[in-house]
Amino acid sequence: MRAFNSSHRLFAITLLSTVVMSGCQVVSLKQQAIDVTIANERNSILTQKRLSEASLNVLSMSGKEAKYCMQSADECIADLHKIPQILDEQLLSTSSELFLAKSKALANSSECKISKLSKHKSEEEQKNIQKNYEQCLDQQLEALDKSIRYSYAYLFKTSRAPQERLFDNRQVQIRDFYNQALTQLVNIHSLRNPSKDLAPTIKIGKSTYTIDIQAYQRLQNMKLEKFVSSYNMNFSGLRAINRRDGFGSDFVAVFPADNANKFENKYILDPLNYNYPKGTNPNIHKARYLAATIIAQPKRAAATADEVLNSPEFEIKVYDPYSVEKVNIAGKPYSLAANFSAPYGLWLSENNLGAAAYLTLIDRDQHLTMPHLYMLEPYNPNKKVIVLVHGLASSPEAWIAVTNDIMGDPVLREHYQVWQVFYSTNMPILESRFQIYALLKQAFGSVNMQDAAAKDAVLIGHSMGGIISRLLVSNADISKEALVMMSSRQQTRLRKHPVIGERLKMQPISNFDRAIFLAAPHKGTDYADRW
Predict the structure, then answer these.
(1) 45 vs 100, 102, 105, 334, CA distance in Å?
(2) CB-CB neighbours of 237 under 10 Å
(3) What is the three-state SS of 236-263?
């Protein structure tokens, strides 16, 4: 009885102290700005230097400080596992963010950076700096590996199916954690292993990632220079970025320039019959920048979250977003994410053809630059070809909006591929027509005539490019009219070099079914005399 009274006395004291202490707390209502409310719900380690509110709430149950857990993620997550009140979704999502936060902290540390001033240090000091740098990158990779695993387990292996969390803010956050962790893993692995050969496996601590490109046929048997993440690319000149929402992290696969087939850009009198190195015109450029989407998942089917977290074998699958729209993940089909504008934007930014156009126009020495043809995606035999020819003092940059819209429209993207012509506009129009004619004949001549791409092509020309385009589909012989207008010296030169006369005889390129002319002065313009 005495024990019973003592326990009641202890309870009464505890209750009294709680009441007394809480008596000082006052709950008041205050309306906060809508942007603050949304920020509190959606901000995370990706947008600020602190964890999301959802993760902070989970950590508060363990009594550990967030700052400490961001540095010692393994220890804090082990404590979270011991608390039965924490749901599987809370545990997995918080763990994913903690490891991503740890990776970010490592990335900002001095060990994961090599200063330019280090080259002035002794050889021994440089070796130590390099060793610390590589160890730091390895630690980052291990943190990213765990972030990917926890994200994947949250997205696909919790008691609730992904469809049941369709409107959860947390699901969007974790998808972003997954994408960013995968993006950084690929980027850091490239820094850790600066080789242009695509390694078949990536070893990260106890994990082994196998690279699988079987789903991207165009990457097979090709030497890849690098993968560049397009997740946060921002192109100032593009009106819109054409994306497809879905699962996976979008990249641009970049192939090295074919220096072995590099051709001196000299003027060629007879381009159709010229003996080119390796037998092909090197001014016909195949696509170097390809859209790619990467997914990391367990190599063997995992039934539970624990299997996802502990299985040593993962795989990185690379997909062609042009040919694959849906992927099967954990037994369910999901839309594959894609960025269709990034390869085109990267190509434009690295080639700077606009500046080249002005330089060739004002070239006082009248050097004639041979035209170039750029295929903006790998040749697809099943897609019709659209050829774009720019105008005076212009370049393929004139077609940015049109090309981007073609690549962004699902119907046009499925049925058409774009080729762009770049030519020096200081050439006479007849010479430009002759050189571009030869270039296009060679390009179409390199494909199978039974392909859909070899038939019903569309030719679009703007301004001077419209005039040239009209001549590319015309059947005319103006040699007699031109001969009357020539001096005797010019006539002698023409007889000495018969190929010059070929400029005056035009035949249509049979691959074109339609020609479109935009603002093309077919009847001439008074401004031509005001140069």
Answers:
(1) 8, 10, 10, 26
(2) 12
(3) CCCCCCCEECCECEEEEEECCCCHHHCC
Q: Which letter, b or e, does each residue of 482-492 get, where b requires 16 or more Cβ atoms within 10 Å of its Cβ? A: beeeeeeeeee
Convert 351-362 into a string of H (helix), E (strand) and C (coil): HCHHHHHHHHHC
pLDDT at 10: 46
Phi, psi (rounded to 5 degrees) for 345: -65, -40
Strands (E), 255-343: 284-285, 289-298, 313-319, 326-329, 332-335, 338-339
What is the pLDDT averaged over residues 517-526?
A: 92
Rg for the chain (alpha carbons), in Å?
A: 32
Residue 471, Cβ neighbours under 10 Å: how many? 19
- Calculated CA dihedral for residues 269, 272, 274, 279, nearest 10 degrees: 150
d(C-alpha 190, C-alpha 228), whole Å: 10
Structural contact between residues 378 and 290, judged by C-beta atoms closer than 8 angstroms: yes
Are 467 and 520 in contact by the 8 Å Cβ rule? The answer is yes
Strand-pair partners of 516: 460
CA angle 230, 231, 234 (to 5 degrees): 70
Residue 191 has pLDDT above 50, yes or no: yes
Q: What is the 3-state secondary structure (H, E, C) of 462-493?
A: ECHHHHHHHHHCCCEECHHHHHHHCCHHHHHH
**477-491 confidence digits (pLDDT tens):** 999 898 888 888 888
Helices (H), 264-409: 305-310, 342-351, 353-361, 400-408
Q: Which two tokens stand for residue 319?
A: 């997909």
Q: CA angle at residue 526 from 520 to 529, to 5 degrees? A: 115
CB 271 within 8 A of CB 263: no
Phi and psi at 347, nearest 5°, equal -60, -45
- Pairing mode, if any, of strands 313-319 and 201-204? unpaired
Q: Say what the pLDDT of residue 505 is.
A: 94
Quick one: how far is CA 135 from the chain centroid? 29
Spatial neighbors of 18 by CB under 8 A, at least 6 apart, are none
DSSP-derived pairing of the beta strands 284-285 and 372-375: parallel
Q: 291 with 255: CB under 8 angstroms?
A: no
Single pTM value for the model: 0.82
Count Cα neighbours of 450 within 13 Å in the Cβ-side half-sphere. 0
**pLDDT tens digits, one per residue of 1-59:** 444 555 555 455 454 555 454 555 678 888 888 888 888 888 999 999 999 999 999 99
* Residue among 404, 405, 373 nearest 472 (CA): 373
CB 436 within 8 A of CB 422: no
Q: Which residues contact 62 (CB under 8 A, 6 or more apart)?
A: 76, 79, 80, 83
CB 452 within 8 A of CB 504: no
Give Cβ neighbours of residue 320 (< 8 Å, ≥ 6 apart): 215, 216, 217, 218, 219, 290, 291, 292
